[in-house]
Write a structure and sequence with these properties.
mainly alpha
């Protein structure tokens, strides 16, 4: 008797509203639950796939940088990680582009491949930023920076890039020749005993 009463109660609508009983209600919720679970599954798969692609990109860039710069093969993973971290920090359009900026930094000896990863990242991020605001390539920004340090009109790589940034903000690159001027006349500025700030005042 109790079993038949339980079965009957399950079939009856709950709350006096429209629709079937408890079983009908549960069956009706299955499609909703399946859709939600499917959406979550797709999101998880996409995150996993994106993570794998990012890891592969870092591996490619790290290996390429190690080969291009003559760094030890054991440095490849670290260099790839630096490129990935810089990209995650919203610098560059891709891990590969960040790798190109890092190559310019190493080629122009702004920093060594064996330096601290945070220092490599800081210089590379500045090069990427200056490239964007001046419209010059990573290599030209790095080359001008190196030239300024070698001739002594800037005391450090960081100071040289700060001077380029200030000159851009001051409108000294209106003709698009700021980097050309710094590369061509750095030696002459040094011969005149001018520091970077004084030299930029003449441009």
């Amino acid at each position: 008797a109790q079993a038949s009463q339980l079965a009957e109660s399950v079939k009856k609508p709950t709350g006096g509203g429209k629709g079937g009983g408890l079983i009908d209600s549960l069956i009706g919720d299955i499609p909703k639950g399946a859709a939600a679970a499917g959406a979550l599954g797709l999101a998880a798969c996409k995150m996993m796939w994106d993570g794998l692609q990012a890891e592969w990109a870092e591996d490619r860039v790290g290996g390429l940088l190690a080969a291009q710069t003559g760094a030890a093969s054991s440095a490849a993973e670290g260099l790839g990680n630096v490129a990935g971290d810089i990209f995650v920090d919203n610098f560059g359009s891709s891990v590969e582009e960040v790798g190109q900026a890092m190559k310019a930094v190493f080629d122009n000896k702004l920093i060594d491949t064996g330096a601290a990863e945070s220092d490599i990242a800081a210089i590379t991020e500045k090069v990427i930023t200056l490239s964007q605001v001046t419209g010059e390539s990573f290599d030209r920004i790095s080359s001008a920076t190196s030239r300024m340090v070698k001739t002594g009109i800037a005391g450090s790589v960081s100071e040289a890039m700060d001077l380029i940034g200030h000159a851009q903000e001051a409108g000294l690159n209106a003709q698009g020749d700021l980097i050309d001027t710094l590369e061509e006349y750095s030696t002459k500025f040094r011969d005149l005993c001018l520091n970077g700030q004084e030299a930029l005042g003449l441009i």
